[in-house]
Design a protein that fits this description.
Bound molecules: flavin-adenine dinucleotide
Shape: globular
Distance between the termini: 39 Å
Order of helices and strands: EEEHEEEEHEEEHHHEEEHEE
Radius of gyration: 21 Å
Number of helices: 6
Largest sheet: 7 strands, antiparallel
Structural class: alpha+beta
Helix content: 10-25%
Length: 227
């Protein structure tokens, strides 16, 4: 495990304490999880009350962008520069130990601490929106209608630098104490994956529009759409 974080030594704030061997701080580890997770949760406090709001994100280089309605309280507050915690989680499986105590989950997760800023430059704003769309459905930006000036004005975009971040990864079987191995209890892993279903076209789709290639081959967790 590297002890170098994104831009230098691991800070105490993002050091994984429990099961420190599961902590990862290298760029590649953090970025791979952020890129695979389709959405994240943003935590921030307003007058001492924490809120944790699910939202879509996209990583571009060493920044993460989030977007939403200009009227959204979450984006308004965060854009004012309040400290935020962004968390993304990919669930890989259930871990069933012989004892209840040792049950667990296999996962890859990321925590980013920092301060976001509103993106006001039109070019960066458009690039961020493109990144969000392409993060979720690669290939979609090319085809869908791009935002108008009115739609852009109704959308707020924030940039969060990835300076302080940690990843935590659990893999493998349950860790039962040796004394439990003699129990007549099934133990092991149940892998779980996010998988796309069959696309459903809008009822008023104009005739002759084929299912786009990027949907027919949509990949989630490296798996190909089954059909
Ligand atoms: C799907 C899932 C289910 C979990 N279920 C449980 C549960 O039921 N009970 C439980 O105690 N723990 C659970 N965890 C683990 C939990 O996320 C924490 O890692 C754990 O509570 C120990 O935190 P800590 O005391 O080491 O760190 P804390 O002191 O809480 O955090 C210190 C720093 O460590 C880093 N960090 C901590 N956890 C993570 C993480 N998961 N990913 C990335 N960075 C992290 C952050 O930068 C954080 O600022 C689960 C994790 C996942 C992804």
């Amino acid at each position: 495990v590297s002890e170098e974080s994104m831009n230098g030594p691991v800070t105490e704030r993002v050091r994984v304490r429990r099961h420190p061997e599961r902590g990862r701080y290298e760029r590649e580890a953090v970025y791979a999880i952020l890129d695979e997770a389709l959405y994240c949760h943003l935590g921030f406090a307003v007058d001492g009350q924490p809120y944790v709001i699910p939202t879509i994100h996209a990583r571009v280089g060493d920044d993460v962008y989030v977007h939403g309605a200009a009227a959204s309280r979450m984006l308004l507050r965060i854009g004012e520069g309040v400290p935020v915690c962004l968390t993304a989680t990919i669930l890989d499986g259930l871990v069933l130990a012989r004892s209840v105590f040792s049950h667990s989950m296999n996962y890859r997760s990321v925590v980013v601490l920092g301060t976001a800023r509103e993106v006001t430059g039109p070019e960066e704003k458009m690039a961020a929106l493109r990144a969000v769309v392409e993060h979720v459905v690669p290939g979609r930006w090319r085809e869908a209608r791009h935002p108008t000036a009115t739609e852009l004005a109704a959308t707020r975009v924030l940039r969060l630098p990835l300076a302080e971040a940690s990843a935590k990864v659990r893999t493998g079987p349950p860790k039962d104490p040796a004394s439990d191995a003699a129990l007549d209890v099934w133990a092991g892993e149940l892998p779980l994956t996010l998988r796309p279903g069959r696309p459903v076209a809008v009822p008023d789709l104009r005739p002759g529009i084929a299912l786009p290639e990027y949907l027919a081959e949509y990949l989630v967790n490296g798996r190909r759409f089954p059909g």
